[in-house]
Design a protein that fits this description.
17 strands, alpha+beta, single chain, Elongation Factor Tu (Ef-tu), domain 3, Gyrase A, domain 2
Length: 304
């Protein structure tokens, strides 16, 4: 494992949700239990269409008296618009905080210790105040390290002062792809992707006991009826990296679809019947051969 490192994630933005109704307002809109967000815990969640299809994913952390959403920067205005549609008479204030705050990823040996999260390995979502902002262990999988939402003008300085070294984006993506973690709309098609195909159950992005939220019906039905036939999972690539959306083919039949990649690693949505069990044919994506691998955290249905 590499030395404790950080990278400022310039493709992530920050939205603030304030007001006395902030928690109740979000609770009816997102897949996870917002009531669990506190000064010592952050969560990962998603907003869905009424039909249960993916719209946005984000991390939710508490900072002072507000909730901060770590979301896709390029799509943050759409998220603000979607949230504002449901504001009605709720006493909430929705603000774009991207100019004020930067999002950073921290990873590598000792990274969590460096930002005051000693003992947080294996404790997804453990949170602490740090350098005028907030830092938390990755709510999806602690092996990914942690994330920080920090004042933009001092974020890099604060992380460096804590003993973390700047890393390349490729270092972050290699770790993410190896672990099989999705990266927003790079890996999940908007208004088409289903949460449980993309690991939201095992990666702590859905709370099954919180009550109703938009899109809950399809999400619950998919789980209880065992309707999952495809999964987003890490793949190794032998050949030129396929573009996102490239079909995976197995002996002339479509077996899935490519998502994000970096070098010889990537993510792909793979039909479960084409997973390599000794009998499955090789998967081709353009001129490349793609080999899927089930990550340790993933639960798959037993084969009949």
């Amino acid at each position: 494992m590499q030395d404790p490192s950080y990278i400022i994630l310039n493709d992530r933005g920050v939205i603030g949700i304030g007001g006395v109704d902030a928690v109740d307002f979000l609770q009816g809109l997102v897949s996870n239990d917002v009531a669990k967000v506190s000064p010592v815990r952050a969560i990962w969640s998603a907003m869905l269409t009424p039909q249960g299809k993916f719209l946005h994913e984000f991390f939710i952390a508490r900072h002072d008296d507000r909730l901060l959403l770590d979301c896709e920067a390029a799509r943050r205005q759409d998220l603000i618009k979607k949230l504002s549609m449901y504001k009605l008479r709720a006493k909430v204030e929705i603000t774009d905080e991207t100019e004020k705050f930067s999002v950073a990823a921290v990873f590598g040996n000792g990274a969590l210790d460096a930002v005051g999260l000693s003992g947080a390995e294996g404790a997804e979502g453990a949170t602490n105040a740090f350098a005028g902002g907030v830092v938390f262990s990755e709510p999806r999988l602690s092996e990914m390290g942690g994330r920080a939402i920090l004042p933009a003008d001092t974020a890099a300085e604060a992380l460096g002062r804590a003993g973390l070294k700047p890393a390349a984006r490729a270092d972050y993506d290699t770790l993410r792809l190896t672990l099989g973690l999705p990266d927003g709309s790079r890996d999940m098609v908007v208004e088409k992707a289903i949460l449980l195909e993309n690991g939201f159950d095992e990666l702590h992005g859905v709370d099954w006991d919180k009550g109703c939220y938009m899109g809950q019906e399809l999400t619950s039905r998919t789980r209880y009826r065992g309707l999952i036939k495809k999964r987003l999972m890490p793949v190794t690539i032998d050949g030129p990296p396929p573009q996102p959306g490239t079909p995976l083919m197995a002996e002339g039949r479509e077996a899935g679809e490519m998502r994000s990649s970096d070098g010889g690693l990537g993510l792909a949505l793979v039909r479960l019947k084409y997973l390599d069990d000794g009998d499955a044919p090789p998967l081709k994506a353009g001129d490349a051969t793609v080999s899927p691998r089930k990550p340790d955290w993933m639960r798959l249905p037993e084969k009949q």
